[in-house]
Amino acid sequence: VQLVESGGDLVQPGGSLRLSCAGSGLVLRDYAMTWVRQAPGEGLEWVSSISSDSSHIVYADSVKGRFTISRDNAKNMVYLQMNSLNSEDTALYYCYTGGRSNWNILPIRRGQGTQVTVSS
Q1: What does DSSP assign to residue 79?
Q2: What is the DSSP secondary-structure string of 42-60?
Q3: 106 by DSSP, 3-state: which?
Q4: 10-residue block means of pLDDT along the chain (120 residues)?
């Protein structure tokens, strides 16, 4: 039972990436889902959450208007479309089960992360 993130890469400032989170042995439609990131030397930063039916979506102010969270329950996937990337978006990105208020409450379910590096 695990989550598997993918899609991270090296991208130039102003560029775009789409991150994916797949459930392996885990039915993601049963959960709200959250993206969290960790910049080098920093703590975990909540980025965005989406409810199980996509009816409720929230973003951190730092990414609002640039990032879009979505999910495809039929494919057991969650996505994070990231546009207008800048150096401050450089981080290891994780997906978690849980929503804005409980992604960091036991039981913790997250993947190994996918690295996003924004640099010219």
Answers
A1: E
A2: --EEEEEEE-TTSS-EEE-
A3: coil
A4: 93 98 93 97 97 97 98 97 98 96 89 96
